[in-house]
Amino acid sequence: MAENYNYKESELKWRKFWETEGIFKFSLKNKAKVYSIDTPPPTVSGKMHIGHAFSYSQQDFIARYKRMAGFNVFYPFGTDNNGLPTEKLVEKLKNVKSTRMPRNEFVELCDNTVKEILPNFIEDWKIIGMSCDFSNSYSTIDKHCIKTSQKSFLDLFKKNLVYQQTAPTMWCVHCQTAIAQAELEDKELDSTFNDVQFSLEKGDKITIATTRPELLGACVCIYVHPTDKRYKNLIGKNAIIPLFGYKVPIFADESADPEKGSGIMMVCSWGDKYDAEAIAKRKLTPRIIITPDGKMNSFAKQYEGLTIKDARKQILSDLEKEGLLIAKKPIKHVVNVHERCGTEIEFLSTKQWFIKILDNRNKFIEAGKTIKWYPEYMFTRYKHWIENLGWDWCISRQRHFGVPFPIWICKKCSEVLVAEESELPIDPLEKKPSKKCKCGSSEFTADNDVMDTWATSSVSPQIILNWAKDKGFDASMELYPCSLRPQAHDIIRTWAFYTIVKGVYHENKAPWKDITISGHVLDPKGEAMHKSKGNAVEPSVVLDKYPADALRFWAAGSKLGDDLRYLEKDLVTGQKTVTKLWNASKFTLLQLQDFKSKPKKLEAFDIWILTKLNKLISNSTKNFDNYDYYKVKADVELFFWRDLCDYYLEISKDRLYNPDKRGVQERVSAQYTLYSSLLNTLKLFAPIMPFITEEIYHMHFSEKEKIKSIHLCSWPIPDQSLIDEKNEEIGDKLIEIISEVRKEKSQKSVSLKESVKEIVLPFKESEVKDFIEDLKSVTKAEKVSFGKKLEIKL
RNA sequence: GAGCCAGUGAUCUAGUGGCUAUGAUGUCUCCUUUACACGGAGAAUGUCGAAGGUUCGAGUCCUUCCUGGCUCACCA
Predict the structure, then answer these.
(1) CA–C1' gap, A192 and B1, in angstroms
(2) CB burial readout A241-252, b (16+ within 10 A) else e
């Protein structure tokens, strides 16, 4: 055995071994119960980030445990590479603008770029030791996924759960597409709260406070609260819009808050959701003033063509010139921005596809209740999100690289014709429908729109299910619901929620039995990591310096749902544990070279450590079953470091080194104990540190156990016959004595090797006699006697 | 504004009613000991956020408050 462990060499070696030997390949022949994991397909970006390394490690602990625990683990790997995030990446990598090139060229460029970067991207997941079946990887833009996604749409269409509507929807003027509520983010911006003077027909003046003066030309009516005494006389009158000069009616409406601003509110098309509701309620004709690319249109008169920002500036300055700007207070306010680009969202009236979700909120909450959430409180977050939903799910995007809607629109009667399931996957821009429209016409147009990326990733359970079926999956293997959905908490409102929606609509039940939610990685100060903040840590940099096992060991240090700070010292601790395993194994395996048969009888201290080991196995099993990998990590670490290395290895040395003095059977007993303790420690650590455990396993145990990978070994079962509480209690007391002797030597600045003349033990001889020889050797005591009080005579 | 989570030695952390509160990192002292100095032995450091309450007994349960983080909402 080499002096030092070369993790770089070793990790690469085992990664290749697992792949060429197909260790994690899903087996159709395996008749064991299936444990299926609805793995998150990471969005293809340049590189894996540390948050990925963290949460994917956590799910891999579970996958590896379940595999050892005897399940036939179905653990496919996928990547999410369609839709806006992929387009953004391609635009950045290739320095292009999708709006400035032909659509098909851009789509092709996306396709090629994804193919180009995918292998390297996936490699990062292999490096951290993910035990997915990489021979079966899906991509959300591949034919199979497009088919599954389009099939989902057809099913919703048939069930009347999807509809197309022209209405004000949230719009990103930068990405030039509609977006969904879940894609909003808060951003605090500097702005001004402006008191603007409006005139009434008879020359009276009123003041309205607004943060959005550029929408003056979009104002269609004015609200005051019905009980607001100040403004009772305004109701029913008209107001004249400053700078624009047209008249709008003044209504009484509950939605005007007398406390806010001047208590008078202008309704514009559209400042927010409530404006849209107000205009619909009053049946007013909207004055839509913003173009899809964020400029002012002809309603803005002299401001036409300006950007929103410029129009705001110009209008404010003109108001000021006219003496109509009564006050301008600087404020900080929080606005909704598009999460992908940070642009403030607008409301535009466009034709979009929506999946009905508002009507069935209760169903989604009920379905959520049938899933076991780890940690439990994450369900509350899910529930609150649903309770606060304000919109149906807008799934159409005015983009290019994504799943096309499997529909055509009749040129003559505008009827929607949907594709047949057998035609899928289909691009209606390239293929004509196989039948005529109801009206007899065969002239159709197809939509340029594509689906929201979540519309596809939300069918990930169906993607892997259909895929398994295609591969000849035995129908008796229950795949839906999946056993587990692992993901991070930032996408509860998107991925988890949308997948449950689709599950309820397509299969009438929740998509998984369990869901585990990982936290985020924070910087050393406990703040969120952002590339722009410069505090992000790259896994490749970490892995250049530390073993992947150390990274995983660190990731095992926090419980599900908890955020974890990235502190380099924790990686050092992980690395030390790897080294310690190597060194302890070096010693142990050397002692095991001639170990063949079981001992006739176990020595007292051997029973002591085996008792602790079997209790540890029992607890670790329980903890892993509850997804409490952090407890397993902490318990095994403590057992290994303290009980096994600090105490037992030292205790066993005399018997191992001096069989002529201590007896051959006594040595065999120690060998047996070491074999069992080390092998089981390795197994317990294997899900967390797969590389070092595999390395050590292959140095000795694979030959004896006849299983080609530690990750295919069965999870240890506690041997109740080896648990001896009485023995453990006495052993613990003697461990304390050993500790006292060490303390005494340490305080006297004497080496631990130094012999002790006599130890007087505060026990009855009969009670501890089986331990005495080992106690004498480990403490280097020349003589042991028994008395009332502990005495250590150096 | 609402909800959720958390507040334990210098730092991070375990601990869901019961002996002198766990472990790690850091600090200090000692030990080159035949697995390991990426080690070992030991020491010091805690009014368990605050105040009340329940209980024979509370870090652990309840109430209120304070602080931090997250999520959602408001954002004329």
Answers:
(1) 22
(2) bbbbeeebebbb
In chain A, % of residues over pLDDT 70:
99
Instruction: Indicate if ipTM > 0.90.
Output: yes
Contacts of residue A586, Cβ cutoff 8 Å, sequence gap at least 6:
A1
What are the E-state strand segments in A246-345? 247-252, 264-268, 325-338
Q: Tell me how far apart the terminal alpha carbons of chain A are, to the nearest angstrom.
A: 38
Q: What angle do CA A770, A775, A781 make, to 5 degrees?
A: 130
Query: Nearest residue (Cα to C1') for B33?
Result: A753
Dist. CA A429–CA A447, nearest whole Å: 7
Which residues lie closer than 8 Å to A150 by C-beta, 6 or more apart?
A403, A404, A405, A406, A419, A424, A425, A426
The gap between A245 CA and B72 C1' (Å) is 40
Place of tokens 């390949």: A25
CA A357 to chain centre: 24
Give the CA A744 to C1' B29 distance in Å: 13
B21 C1' to A740 CA distance, Å: 22
The tokens for A158 are: 């048939």
Nucleotides of B under 7 A from a protein CB: 3-5, 12, 14-15, 22-26, 29-36, 38-43, 68-76
What three-state secondary structure class fits A360? helix
Distance A563 CA to B64 C1' (A): 29
The 10s digit of each residue's pLDDT in A489-548 is 999 999 999 999 999 999 999 999 999 999 999 888 888 888 777 788 889 989 999 999
Buried b (16+ CB within 10 A) or exposed e, A636-659: bbebbeebbbebbbbbbbbbbeee
Residues A112, A114: Cα–Cα separation, whole Å:
5
E strands, A201-243, in order: 205-210, 219-224, 238-240
Count other C-beta atoms under 10 Å from residue A379's C-beta: 19
Nearest-nucleotide field for A648 (CA, C1'): B35
Query: To the nearest whole percent, how much of chain A has pLDDT over 90?
Result: 68
- Both tokens of A43, joined, read 């969005």
Q: What is the pLDDT of residues A412-423, one digit of tens each?
A: 998 999 999 999
- In the complex, which nucleotide's C1' lies nearest to the CA atom of residue A586? B35
DSSP secondary structure letter of residue A48: -
Q: CA A542 → C1' B65, Å? A: 43
